[in-house]
């Protein structure tokens, strides 16, 4: 992982530039009323009640609808957005040299969203397996986040957790979580449920390689684990493709259902696709939650 961290640090300037360009494109393509308030969709609003003090009304949010809205006191107490990036061994994988590693794409997606949030004046921090981490000095908030991600990668092992420990997430924070979600379903279910109970609202970016969706192999194939798993050799792999695709579809449906039941949002992204459509779809989901 030390070598992987060094190569990530060498790629980070390009990833940072890519994220900044995506954020600029996304911001310019949004409706003007949405453009400066993307971060607002992380906060909980309620309709103003008769007799509500005028100074309690959030006029920017109210201008987007036909009703006056008040931002809840709980949300006002913690206007913090945390980024979690999965640094486990499986995130280093890519099925082709023409594709980015899942980790690289996860970082681009996280930094693109962070750029929009920072433009809106939101406070964005990094979450590590040991809790919220201080960011290194840099010329901009986005660069500080990028350097912080490099530092986390340098200290991660191939057995790094895919998911954060809910107990380390501050109450009422908002969490942006990027992972391939290659973890036990029970662990993911418990994490989402515990976050919701705190309450923490999570936005999950599920990042996958296209080969993980289709199993595009044939003949006798050996699969080598990236996180200490024993190798698995299978004959006639192509005969398993239909059943494999059925299982992938079922798991995607399970992810959608359990994320929604816990009150969170999930977006699926495949590394052979451009990041921008995923972020546009995610923005639409978040806007509907306000």
TrEMBL record:
> Cross-referenced SUPFAM superfamilies, in alphabetical order?
vWA-like (SSF53300)
Lineage, top-rank taxon, reads: Bacteria
Ranges of residues in domain DUF58: 44-250
Concerning InterPro entries, the annotation shows:
DUF58, vWFA_dom_sf
Question: What's the name of the protein?
Answer: DUF58 domain-containing protein
Organism, scientific name: Acetobacter syzygii
